[in-house]
Amino acid sequence: xxxxxxxxxxxxxxxxxxxxxxxxxxVLIAAFLNLFKIWTDEYANxxxxxxxxxxxxxFHNFFYASFDPGGYVTIDKPPVVxxxxxxxxxxxxxxxxxxxxxxxxxxxxxxxxxxxxxKRTFGVWAGRFAALAMALTPIVPAxxxxxxxxxxxxxxxxxxxxxxxxxxxxVKFGWVLAAFAMIGVAFNxxxxxxxxxxxxxxVFYVVATKITWKKKIAFLTTATAxxxxxxxxxxxxxxxxxxxxxPYMGSSQTNSVLELAFGYNGINRLTGNTSVTGSSxxxxxxxxxxxxxxxxxxxxxxxxxSSQSSNQRKSSxxxxxxxxxxxxxxxxxxxxxxxPFRLFQKGLSDQISWLLPFVIFSIVGLFAGVKFKGPxxxxxxxxxxxxxxxxxxxxxxxxxxxxxQYYLIMLAPPIAAFAGAGAVALWSMYKQHNDWxxxxxxxxxxxxxxxxxxxxxxxxxxxxxxxxxxVGALGVILALVLAIRKQRKNSLTNYLGAAAMVxxxxxxxxxxxxxxxxxxxxxxxxxxxxxxxxxxxxxSTATNSKQSGFNGMQPPGIxxxxxxxxxxxxxxxGSSNGGQMPGGSxxxxxxxxxxGSSNxxxxQMPGGSxxxxQMPNSFSSKSSSSKRKSGGMNAEVNQKLLNYLTxxxxxxxxxxxxxxxxxxxxxxxxTGKPVMAMGGFSGSDPIxxxxxxxxxxxxxxxxxxxxxxxxxxGQSDVITWIKENSKExxxxxxQSTSSSAQQGPSGNGTLYEITLK
Length: 757
Known about the structure:
mainly alpha; 5-stranded mixed sheet; two-stranded antiparallel sheet; globular; disordered N terminus
């Protein structure tokens, strides 16, 4: 800490021609958190992994990001990240870790990029602290250890930031174009989420660039036009291609990429209206609970981003969500209630908010004495950039109707940037000033320690009282001692300052390690002692929390043997709010078991009976397999079913067809053969009609249909026709009777055969 007072220029000179030795352990920490044991994740997020398997088979599938090898339907995101994952799988072989590797490397790359961005202006110590804070932000490694998109998205946006900063320093128009074009590339990773940083880019370029207003407007207009062109380039190509020459655009209702971008993956995220029924009588979701109910049949193997049903099921495992210390939360997916303090509520705070009070004090210090009309220093200009990134994104997550916990990685760069820059700035003010500014450092330490105690308090049963009390006591003691010793320039004070930073980063570091310690969830990544559940809330009372998500759910065609009540979905105890599971009765929104059910642990799924709709507790005992099949509830293959389908295939294109990607993904991963998810990801896409299906059967493209009783969405006519015109295959010919299998929503389905002449 004693070196933090040295001049930025001297720090640059001393480190210009050699490796920063302090950075090396930070990078090693990031590498450990992002890479260690990713090889144990066999399927990763099975929805995306199946797509990579399909994309490896042909350029047609590769370009369109087809979910299945037959090119029937795409995944629900644009293709850039999956192009990278496919290339990785081509180089290293198709495995779970090979599709995770690009995201893990992107997580490490983000740490390095943030170091470079902060070091140049705020000094080497600021860069080190920022890089360390980024590496230890719990949600960062949690997401980077999966094949979800967000880690790569953040890396791309930080790369665009580096280009923008270079454009301002060099006053070269080419770098402005490159920066905004990179945002266009990011759009083709996760669509409108990439645009969340645009306020920061516009504000910073206007304030920081020393050119005329005429040139600023011209440059920004041109760069924006380029960004939009890059953003919609793939969408225009796809939407301009005849529908019969490409896969259906998954999760859209009009087979359009642009509709997907600005609807399902765009504005609907803010409004919470993400239901996709695929029917002509589609009703918009009125609440998060209704949204989740409309998609409760969705694939647990599937995209963590799109898997609303999986989140809805997770939500039903927990009791009403409460902020630490109380406060009922009605939000689905453990994302709390919209409001100004949402980021401090349970389920979100422990993913991203550990350092937020310190960041607030840092912002005050960094902008102290700034005049509206300027002039502004380089530090103030770049602080403005990070503030313009932080505030709009924080506001979005405070009011949004639908998002998942792992989206919060978008807040990690500005929080880490302010933590690093602020640590140096507040330390300097503490040592050199005698006014209110000198109190910012002790105040930031004290309030941050208090928040961390608040965040940890619901987890006392799993982490114990000692770490909570330790952080609280040390935070108070160090803040008080620093306040007492203010302006004393000696080594003890320096060590106290360093100790305070260690204390504030200790529990985020532990939380960042929880996906390694307890197991992660590739479908719905989150950090915490219950990280394997993807719920991000206090741990359940189950005996083992290392189960990866819904791994216990059985593959299609495996009947339940010894299914105990402990593996059944239980309604929230005593809750009076929250979303109702379809098929259950409602009591002011309370989740109820299906009417007439003999077991209160059974939750009825859309279109299914209570006998077929039990769901295991997400904290059920861990599989004995050394490989984690964390793709979701059906990330297993029923070998007897597979053998039957393979033996009786007479040249059909599709091994079998099913309602959605839940049953399809593991078979695609296992065999590389086409499996038709008739209704796309959630089973709600209006892809198939009875006439189209008849034509496919007559052409000999498909004859077997596995129907599990899950929701039908816009496929009700198709499913009804299949049942009326097919021959049911006796379960003894294809259904496994493994006594160790747990019962899942598609475990007691029916196999049909149709042959039209």
